[in-house]
């Protein structure tokens, strides 16, 4: 497959030597080889990313990218568009599910308005608004490639600033009424799977709405002549501003050597776009949970990643990613604190 050269800063390789050191260390711990499953894989991958044999990911942040969607006017969501703006206020007041889960995990929350319909961006929100919502992609492209690129750059810059502040682990999520339609259209365009197999009920639409949503996606795929080989075109034609912002977060995290935790369907669609733009993003990505949305499994398969949790969640706003943070802490603590066979006076199994 031919990949377009990324127009963004180069992404460093992961550190294979340190990763190997950590793998060896995990095999010296007092347990059967590989018996801690995902915890072992996690800490080995984190070591490769951070270049530290015992990685430090104690400073954690959650980024919630927010934007509104013209396609919501097609009646594809169970909730009105105003809920995006209301939830932005809720995020900065600390009352949303993600705020609770982030507090549990000792993580900070950063809320970014990349394209909501709010005329005034509330205090406490990072204002990187590219425009007031996207156009309805059932009628015309959601946005221009320039606008998508501006939102990507916002994500990259925000992650760069978080790195400066010492952030070591990043969850990337979103809020935007209508965005499961956009996320599913991206999934269909990038994986070639039929819309009917990928489309779910999002915030909870009924059967009639679901059929309408499938039709909207099918017609958009045809109308915009999308190709998996043109990820920026896909993003601008049927994506969203918060989705583009997340693409930037994933690219930025890889540039800064920060492990980046994906959330549900929409966050993972953004991650797949980032990987299509630059395959070197992939080793920096972690799958937190498996969303109820059927397209999510297909996207994770396309990335070749297994989720840590099967929690039957379908909220978005980085809630699943924040919920997975304590597993990262547990994995590092195992590497740091467990005794080795040598500590017990026994030979190494290797
Ligand atoms: O992350 C997911 O897999 C997910 C699944 C269903 C719904 N959501 C959230 O719900 C909103 C989009 O749902 P909808 O029905 O308006 O397309 C948006 O704010 C997402 O964060 C998110
Ligand atoms: C209330 C509400 C909260 C959300 N958080 C993320 N997506 C959401 C969608 C709705 C409708």
TrEMBL record:
EC number of the protein: 2.4.2.21
Pathway stated in the Swiss-Prot or TrEMBL entry: Nucleoside biosynthesis; alpha-ribazole biosynthesis; alpha-ribazole from 5,6-dimethylbenzimidazole: step 1/2
CDD domains, per the entry: DMB-PRT_CobT
Source organism, top-level taxon: Bacteria
Residue positions of the active site: 317
Catalytic activity: 5,6-dimethylbenzimidazole + nicotinate beta-D-ribonucleotide = alpha-ribazole 5'-phosphate + nicotinate + H(+)
GO molecular function: nicotinate-nucleotide-dimethylbenzimidazole phosphoribosyltransferase activity
Gene Ontology BP terms: cobalamin biosynthetic process
UniProt xrefs under Pfam families: DBI_PRT
Alphabetical keyword list: Cobalamin biosynthesis, Glycosyltransferase, Transferase
Listed transmembrane segments: none
Main enzyme class: transferase
HAMAP family: CobT
Function of the protein: Catalyzes the synthesis of alpha-ribazole-5'-phosphate from nicotinate mononucleotide (NAMN) and 5,6-dimethylbenzimidazole (DMB).
Entry's family note: Belongs to the CobT family.
Identification of the protein by name: Nicotinate-nucleotide--dimethylbenzimidazole phosphoribosyltransferase
Species in which this protein is naturally found: Lihuaxuella thermophila
């Amino acid at each position: 497959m031919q990949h377009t050269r990324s127009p963004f800063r180069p992404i460093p390789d992961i550190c294979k030597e340190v990763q190997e050191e950590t793998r060896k260390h995990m095999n010296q711990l007092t347990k059967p080889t590989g018996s801690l499953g995902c915890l072992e894989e996690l800490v080995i991958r984190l070591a490769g990313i951070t270049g530290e044999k015992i990685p430090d990911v104690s400073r954690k942040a959650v980024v919630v990218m927010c934007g509104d969607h013209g396609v919501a006017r097609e009646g594809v969501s169970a909730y009105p568009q105003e809920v995006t703006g209301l939830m932005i206020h809720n995020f900065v007041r600390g009352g949303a599910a993600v705020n609770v889960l982030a507090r549990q995990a000792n993580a900070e929350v950063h809320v970014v308005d990349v394209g909501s319909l709010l005329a005034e961006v509330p205090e406490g929100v990072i204002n990187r608004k590219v425009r007031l919502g996207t156009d309805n992609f059932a009628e015309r492209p959601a946005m221009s490639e320039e606008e998508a690129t501006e939102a990507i750059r916002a994500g990259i810059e925000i992650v760069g600033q978080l790195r400066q502040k010492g952030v070591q682990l990043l969850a990337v999520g979103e809020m935007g009424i209508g965005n499961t339609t956009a996320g599913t259209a991206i999934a269909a365009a990038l994986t070639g799977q039929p819309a009917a197999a990928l489309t779910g009920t999002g915030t909870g639409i009924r059967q009639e709405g679901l059929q309408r949503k499938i039709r909207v996606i099918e017609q958009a795929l045809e109308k915009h002549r999308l190709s998996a080989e043109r990820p920026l075109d896909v993003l601008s034609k049927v994506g969203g501003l918060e989705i583009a912002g997340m693409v930037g977060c994933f690219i930025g995290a890889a540039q800064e050597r920060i492990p980046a935790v994906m959330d549900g369907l929409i966050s993972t669609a953004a991650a797949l776009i980032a990987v299509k733009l630059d395959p070197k993003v992939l080793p920096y990505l972690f799958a937190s949970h498996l969303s109820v949305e059927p397209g999510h499994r297909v996207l994770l398969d396309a990335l070749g990643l297994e989720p840590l949790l099967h929690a039957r969640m379908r909220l978005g706003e980085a809630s699943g990613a924040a919920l997975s943070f304590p597993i990262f802490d547990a994995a590092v603590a195992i590497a740091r604190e467990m005794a080795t066979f040598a500590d017990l006076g026994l030979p190494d199994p290797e």
